[in-house]
Amino acid sequence: MPRLPKTLECQSCEMRFDPRDERAVVYADRPELNRCPICNILDIAGHRAWAVSNNCQGVFTCGIASSKETATERLNSGDYDGAGCEVVPVVIIAGKPFIDRPWWA
C-alpha cells in the first residue's frame, strides 16, 4: 500500500485534513473525490441550503431557503437593509431541540 501524505485537500471545502482519519474518504487513484471528515458528516446528516447571514448575528433562521435565488430574494426584500448581509451556503442538520431554542429544526 502506498504511503499517504500527512495532509490532503478536501475537494468539497478545500480544507486540509489528515487522510488517516477513518471518517474521511480518500481515493489513491481518484484524488478529485477526496473528502474531509466534516464534509462527509454534513452530507450524511443534513441537507444543503442557502441562508441570509452577516458577520455579527450569523445566519438568520428566517432567511433560510432551499435555493440561492430564493435566499437572494429574501435578502433583497428590504428586511435586512443596513445589516451588511450576504447569501451563504449552509447545511441544515436535524436533531433534538435545545430547551432555549424552539426553532431548532
Description:
This protein has 105 residues and is α+β, with helices and mostly antiparallel strands. Helices cover 16% and strands 22% of the residues. The protein contains 2 helices and 5 strands, in the order ββαββαβ. It has helices spanning 37-45, 68-75, and strands spanning 8-9, 16-17, 46-54, 58-59, 86-93. The strands form 2 sheets. A 3-stranded antiparallel beta sheet has the order 4-3-5. A two-stranded antiparallel ribbon has the order 1-2. Strand 1 (8-9) and strand 2 form a beta hairpin.
Strand order of the largest sheet: 4-3-5
- Give, in order, the helices and strands: EEHEEHE
Rg from Cα: 18 Å
- Mean pLDDT value: 82
- The tally of helices reads 2
**In terms of structural class, how would the helical and strand content be classed?**
alpha+beta
Helix content: 10-25%
**How many beta-strand segments?**
5
Could you say which overall geometry the principal axes of the C-alpha atoms support? elongated
Proportion of strand residues: 15-25%
Q: Between the first and last Cα atoms, what is the distance in angstroms? A: 43 Å
List the helices and strands and how they pair.
Layout: E1 8-9, E2 16-17, H1 37-45, E3 46-54, E4 58-59, H2 68-75, E5 86-93
Antiparallel strand pairs: 1-2, 3-4, 3-5
Précis, in short:
The chain is 16% helix and 22% strand. The protein is an alpha+beta fold and 105 residues long.
Q: Can you give keywords for this protein?
A:
elongated; single chain; three-stranded antiparallel β-sheet; 105 residues; alpha+beta; 22% strand; two-stranded antiparallel sheet
